[in-house]
Design brief:
By secondary structure, the chain is α+β, with helices and mostly antiparallel strands. Helix content is 17%, strand content 22%.
Length: 244
């Protein structure tokens, strides 16, 4: 039962990435349904067999997209500076810079291969023009090495949190700038109940927090296993940062 729940939650974890693009390239992440792999030879593979990049095991995805993982927020800022020095465009993303031993935070830079200039030998990975790349935030509850999930596994196999975007368009950047984090709050379905049809639930029952800004839905915070401790809510929300 726990394994089945974890599989379902894993799919939800990547919902933000699924909605950010029109194609359904993430559906295979947790089901290993690599149909293109069955008709490919080792010589024409764009990535080695078993490679997931932490997000997807399908060759269909990897032919179109690529990822590069970073360990720290400082590395993200340096990467953005380099990218923008080449005139790159970056999609808006929500991250949290909450500094605590509770999480091991990683950042996934995802981009279309067709939008990236070739990487010159000996140069920093980000020392080139890459348009429409995005930096996605993952907070693992255990210490995790990036190499641990680059093959066979994906981030959905871990106790992890990520941001899922709200809004009807499902497009990155479809959210306003938060000018005062004091107006942010955490809610979930059934938090207070309604006295009739919705029972009061002390914790989210669908592994999803709603983050509200001025009382309106702003984004979702998805977790696979461990809830965010209530005593951390305010400090956590105060670190909301927009990458752009």
């Amino acid at each position: 039962m726990k394994k089945s729940l974890k599989l379902v939650v894993g799919v939800i974890l990547c919902l933000s990435m699924l909605l950010s693009f029109v194609s359904c390239r993430y559906i295979d992440v947790f089901f290993n349904n690599d149909t293109k792999d069955k008709v490919s030879t080792d010589n024409d593979r764009i990535v080695p067999k078993g490679y997931t990049g932490g997000v997807c095991g399908s060759l269909t995805y990897h032919y179109e997209y690529a990822v590069y993982w970073l360990e720290t927020y400082e590395e993200v800022l340096s990467a953005i500076e380099l990218l923008k020095s080449h005139g790159s465009t970056i999609q808006r993303d929500i991250i949290f810079t909450y500094d605590t031993d509770m999480f091991d935070v990683k950042y996934c830079f995802e981009y279309k291969r067709s939008k990236a200039e070739p990487l010159e030998e000996g140069k920093n990975f980000f020392d080139r023009k890459i348009d429409e790349g995005s930096f996605q935030w993952y907070a693992f509850y255990d210490d995790v090495e990036i190499d641990d999930f680059m093959y066979i596994k994906t981030v959905g196999d871990y106790d992890v949190m990520c941001v899922s975007y709200a809004g009807t368009s499902g497009i990155y950047g479809d959210f306003e700038t938060v000018e005062n984090t004091d107006y942010l709050s955490i809610d979930w379905y059934g938090k207070d109940g309604d006295g009739y049809d919705i029972p009061k639930n002390e914790l989210p029952i669908n592994n999803e927090y709603d983050i509200l800004y001025k009382g309106k839905l702003y984004c979702h915070l998805i977790f696979s296993e461990t809830c965010l401790p209530e005593e951390c809510y305010r400090d956590f929300l105060s670190t909301l940062t927009i990458i752009e």
